[in-house]
Model the fold of this input.
Amino acid sequence: MFDKQDDSMAIIESVKRTPNHLIANTLRCPVATKHNPKSALNGRPARPDPESTARFYYKGSRFKQLQAFVAIAQLGTLTRAAESLFLSAPSVSLRLQALERELGAQLLQRGRRHVTLTRAGQTLLEYARPLIEGLDTLDAKFHSALPGIAEGELTIAAGTSTIQYLLPPLVTAYRKRYPSVRLQLANVTGKDGLAMLRSDHADFAVGSMLDVPNDLLYQPFRRYDPMLILPRGHPLAEQPNVRLEDLSPYGLILPPQRLTTYRMVDMVFKQHRVPYTVAIEVGGWEVIKQYVGMGLGISIVTSICLTDADQGNLVSRNMNGWFPQRSYGVVMVKGKYLPAEARNFINLIRPGLLHHREHDEIGDSER
Done:
C-alpha cells in the first residue's frame, strides 16, 4: 500500500514538471529504452528503466531514506528492516539506493546473510540515528517540557514474582523522579508477555528467560541463587550438603510447566539422569512457600523470594552446585526505539544498560 502511493506521487510530480506538448508526444509514440530497445518498434509498451525509476523514487523524502538505512544497519538484514517498517523489501531497497545515489557514497556491503556498514555508512549512522530516535521521542520530550502536562505513559510487562520482589524499589525511585508519568505494570507471564511486546502493548518486559527468541533482546542485570526450601523437621533439614539424588524420594512443589523454573528443574534432573516427582503444580512463590511450610512437599525456588520472615517455618539450602543461577533482565524487541519514559526507567535499573543492546551491533546474526 505504501509503495504504490509513493510511486504514484512521484510520477504525478514528474508529469507536472513536463511541458504539455512533450506529454502528448510521449502518449502517441512508444519510447525505446536501453533495456528494451525493440519496444518502440513492435508497438508494445516499453518497460520503465529501473535506474530512472530509482532516481526519483522517494525523492525529497530524506527522513524515509534515513529511516530505512538506520533500520537495515541496526537489524542486519534488509528483510528484518522491511518487517520493522511494515514495508516490502523492494521498497526499502529503493529507499537505500536513492540515499546512496544522492549522497554519492556506498553505505553498505551486502553479504549472503546480513549486511555490514562501510566507513561512509558508519559515519552516516552516527549522525542519522540520533535524528531518527529524536523524532521517535519528540512527543514525550515536548510534553515533559510543558508544566502541568503529563510526561507520558510507560507499560512494563512482568510476572508476579518480579512485580512483588524485584520492581518495588525501582518503581519507588521512578515515581519520585517522574511523578507525572502514568505507569502500568502488566502482570503477565510467558507467551502473554512476549505477545504484549510484539504487539507494542508494552514498552519492555522485566523477567527471567532461558531461551531468547531471535526477534527479542534480553539484557540481564540481576542474578539469584537456586534455593532448596524444606519444612522444619524435614529429614533433609539437618543435612548440610544436599545432593540432587537426595531430593528424588520427596515430591516437589513447582510452578506451572510453561514457566522458567519448572523447565530449569526438569532440565537439571534429566541431565543428571535422576528421577523426580512433582507432587503439586501451583503458581506463585508465596503459595509455594506456604505449601512447603505446611509439609506438603519440598521445592526449588529463587533466592529473590526468600525473606527474613520465612525463617520461622522454612529451612533453605543453597543448590548452586546443581542448579544454575537465575538471571532477571530487561526484555526488548530488537530494533524498537524506546520512548524517553522507558529509557529513564531502564537507566534507573543500571545506567548504561541500553548502550549494550545487541541489535545496535551491525549485522546481528540469528541465535
